[in-house]
Amino acid sequence: MNSQVLLSLLEVLQMVGFVAFVTLWIEAYLYVHFNFPKKSWFLPAVLSVVPFAVLLLVLVAVGPVITVGQAVNIYLYSLLAEALLSSFFRYKGDKKLALPYMLIMPGFVGLALLIAYPLVFEVYLAFHDLKLTTLKVWSETGYLPFVNFEHFYDVFTKSPLSEVSFWQLLGRTLWWTVVNVFFHVAGGLALALLLNNEIRLRGLYRTLLVIPWAMPCVVAVLAMRGEFHSEYGFINIMIGRLTDAFPMLAQLGMHKVQWLSQHAFLTCTIINVWLGIPFMMVVILGGLQSIPKSYYEAASIDGASRFQKFRHVTLPLLRPVLAPAVTLGTVWTFNNINVIYLVTGQSGGTEEADILVSALYKAAFTFNRFSYSAAFALVIFVLLAVISLMWLKFSKGTESAYD
Questions:
Q1: Residue 194 φ/ψ, nearest 5 degrees
Q2: 311 with 297: CB under 8 angstroms?
Q3: d(CA 23, CA 316)
Q4: Domains of the chain, with CATH numbers?
Q5: Closest CA to 61 of 115, 105, 117, 107
Q6: H or E segment at 159?
Q7: Residue 46, helix vs strand vs coil
Q8: CA 20 to CA 28: how far, in whole Å?
Q9: What phi and psi values does residue 128 have, to the nearest 5 degrees?
Q10: Is the C-alpha dihedral spanning 37, 41, 47, 52 positive or negative?
Q11: CA distance to 42, 90, 113, 157, per residue, from 100 (Å)
Q12: Is 161 strand, coil or helix?
């Protein structure tokens, strides 16, 4: 056990050391290029050192997977890129910008590696064929068969699961998003309007209402999942007590429900609504508190009713807050796999509650359809981007309240 712990610590230290080395290399690179681009030794020095350093970094990061031909290509591309960059620094570089770039660039490179590389690799997989039968060949030789747009065609024509089609999943996902976001905004707005009044213990109410959003998502979802248990859950216990106290309710059809098996999608929706309302409440409450009271006083002098104040003062001035919050909530809800993953039985479970992202997860990690899943993910990304841009344009969320 001790040797395993030491080995893990050693791996962590190696990673930290590698990151520190890369950071120092970036800082040294920028310092030299900003301060000495017009020196006579500059061009020969950087052209001889930088491509070799890049190749060394790639070999350290990737290991022996790189072939001789790939290593030569990396060196030549690095040489060409360095020649262009050196010329840029020589004729367009400004020494005054050295410090800002030296402070920003390590973080920028880290984010680029964390975001850009996986996205590029995903596009690569979407146009190739990676699955269990090709995985071993790919790991040994790096070769994957090119299949063009075949996987994108399969996304729309073949089911990612065993019982539902892509179009059923898309419709369910849109319904899931609309219903959840509607109740998030409606519930958050109602609570924010109540808390914006001068009431006693307002701080305590805010604290209690924000708990579902503040606690870890896994804890909150599993806690609520337990409340829908068929025998011991709070919901069915209360239904049982109501039908015992009022037998007429049982005659009208009220009875205990198998929430997790027969109504999985409804259960997930209720839990997600409960989780999302506090976030919208906090955002909207902040927007309400930023509205000057003089606007309401002027509206009162003009004889406006409460509804007229809400319609003509509150809502227009909340638009710059609501539009990006709804956009963010739409993206989160559209991609929210946590609730469905935890409520319906992790990677297996019923397909009744699956939406696009949970189907994507199962296609990738249950059915091992890796390239198909990469194409599926790109389709979801495009759909979500289009929906978000359409909403921002419709809601005028990029405009100021005073435009």
A1: -65, -45
A2: no
A3: 47
A4: 2-141 (no CATH), 152-395 (1.10.3720.10)
A5: 117
A6: none
A7: helix
A8: 12
A9: -125, 180
A10: negative
A11: 22, 18, 20, 50
A12: coil
Instruction: In whole angstroms, give the CA distance from residue 59 to residue 71.
Output: 8
Quick one: DSSP state of residue 398? T
* Distance separating alpha carbons of residues 154 and 363, to the nearest angstrom: 12
Give pLDDT tens digits for 306-341.
888 888 888 888 888 888 888 888 888 998 888 888
Query: Per residue in 335-385, pLDDT tens?
Result: 888 888 888 865 455 678 889 998 898 888 888 888 999 999 999 999 988
Per the listing, tokens 């030299």 go with: 32
Q: Side chain identity at 390, as an amino acid letter?
A: M
DSSP 345: T
CB atoms within 10 A of CB 333: 21
In sequence order, the 6+-apart residues with CB closer than 8 A to the CB of 334 are 173, 177, 355, 356, 357, 384, 387
Q: Is residue 132 within 8 Å of residue 366, measured between CB atoms?
A: no
